[in-house]
Amino acid sequence: MSNRYIAVNWNRQKRRYDTTIALGVLLLVAGFFVATLLSHPHLTAETGLIRGLGLTAFVLLHVILLIGPLCRLDPRFLPLLYNRRHLGVTLCLVALGHAGFVLFQYHALGDVNPLASVLGSNLAFGSLAGFPFELLGLAALLILIVMAATSHDFWLSVLSPRVWKALHMLVYLAYALLVGHVALGAMQAESGWAGPLALALGFALVVGLHLAAGLRERPGDRPDAGGEWVPVCRVEEIPERRARLAMVGGERVAVFRSEGRLSAVSNVCKHQNGPLGEGRVVDGCITCPWHGYQYRPEDGTSPPPFDDKVPTYDVRVDAGLVTVRRGAHPPGTRVEPVAVQVAGPRGAAEWSPETAPPFYIGYAPAAAPELALHTRKAVALIGAAALATVITLALAQAPFAASRFEYGQPRSVTGRLVAAPYPRLEVAAAGGVTQYLLAAAGKHGAAALAAPLDGRMVRLRGALAQRGNAVMLEIDSLVPAEAAPAAPLTQQPLGEFALTGEIVDSKCWTGVMNPGEGKTHLECAVRCVSGGLPPLLALRDSLGREAQLILTDARGGPLPRDVLPLVGRPVRVHGTVVREGSLLFLRTSRGAVEVLR
Question: ∠ at Cα 538 (533, 542), nearest 5°?
C-alpha cells in the first residue's frame, strides 16, 4: 500500500509473484517449442515462436479470467487476485511478442507497409472459411494494450473507479475476439480434435465458473421487503470481525460486528469495487479482501494518510434483529456504532487470531501457513494444467512438410539464366538439367536482377530451399560466367485440365517458411506473390503425394495481380498445362479460377 503513486511498489510477495509468472511463461513457450521440435522435426524457429507465444498468451488469459470466480467461490484463491494486474501486463507483453513475430514474418520485407498488409491483405469478410481472423486478434491486442497501459492505480484515480472498472471489463470482449481469432485461424489450419476440444473446454470452464460464482451470490441480491428499516439478520448470525450482506434500497450493504459494536457500510470498495462484505476487520479497520484497502467502520473513511471514503448506513437492533435504514449517508459520514452483546460460541470472547479462518492481506509480512500451502498447490496445479495443455496441442499439430532452407549457408552454382515468365536457373547435372526457381531477399521476386542477364550463363551464390522435387535459390549475388550458354529447354503442351489445390507463393512453400500454406499463411503468401515471387498451384492427391505447377497467364507470361484475392484459398483452376524440363506451368486467367469455399 502507498499514499502516493510510484512506478511499482514491489514487496516480497510481488517479487515472488512476478518471478513465478516469468518462469511460467518461459516454461510454457519452451515446452511448446521443444515438444513441437521433437514431434515435428521440420519446424522452423519462427513458426515455433509465433505459435508458442500465441498459445501461451491465450492460456494466460484463461488463467486471468478464472481467478475472479475462483476467489468468489473459495477465498483461499485471493493471493492470486492480489497481483492479478501483473499477470495481465505479462499477458500483454507475451501477446505483443506473438504479434511482433507475426508482423515481421508474414507482413514485413514486402511491397507494402506491414500494417497496411495486416489490414488489407485479406478482405474476405463475407466468407466464414476465409474470414480475416488476424483483425480479430489485432482488436483484442489493442484492448489488452489499453488495459496494461492503464493498470496502475494512478489511472484508476484519474479515470475514476467506475470508468476504470468499465474499461477493464473489456477483457471479456478481448476474450471473445480471441476465441474467434483462434477458431477462424489456427483451428482451421489443423484437422485434429485436440484444438477444438481444448478451445471448447477452456470456454466452458470460463463461462461455467462465472455462472457458478454468480449463482452463489444471487440469493443475496433479492429485493428487500420495503419500509424505512430493512431487516438483515439476528445479531449472533454476524461472525465476529466479519459481516453479513443485505440488499437495502437496491444496494448491497455490509453490516460488520467487531468488539461488541455494529456498523454498516456500502459493500463496494472505492479502489476496484471489491466486495468489502467479504473482508475482515483488521486493526480496527474494515479490510477489503481484494487488495487490502481499509476503512474505519464508524465513518467509512480510510485511516490517514489515505483519504478514500465509502457511504455509511444507520443501524439499529430490535430484540436481537439487526436492521438497516434505507438510504445511504454521503461517503465518510460518521454514524455512531451500535453496541451489542452476544452470548454463546459466536460471541466476541470466543474469537482469536489463532482460531479465525485465514485472511490474506497482500502487503502483510506473511500469509497464514495453511493459506500459503493452498496457494502453492493452486499455482502448481494451474501450472501443470497449462503445461499439459501446450504440450498436448504441440504434439497434436498437423505434420510439417519435409522441407529445408539453408539459411546462412549459401552455395555457388553456374547455369543458364531464364528470366521469363519467372526467373529460374537451368543447371546441367549428371541426370539432366536441374531447374531452380529464383527469389530475391525478403518477399520479392528476382525479375529485376535476372532481366539484364536473360539467356546468359551466370554464376549465382545463394541459399537453397527444397521441398520434394521443388528447389529454389534465394540470391545473394549474381554475376556473368565465362561459359557457353546451354540450349534452351523445349516446351511440351500436355492438354487442358481442371485442377484443385491452393495458390501459394513458391518461396515459403518450397521451404523458407514451414508451414508455407494454409489459412494462417495466407497473408504472407499474398505479400510474396504481390512482390513478384512465382505463384504455384499446390496439389495433393488422395495418397498425400504433392505436386506443384507454376501459374502464368494464358500466353505464358506472369500471372496478373488480380489473382491476389485468390491466394491461400482452396481453388479449382482451369487451364493448359505445359512442361518445360522438369517444371510444369499452368496457363490460366483470373476468370478461370474458382474459389471452392
Answer: 170
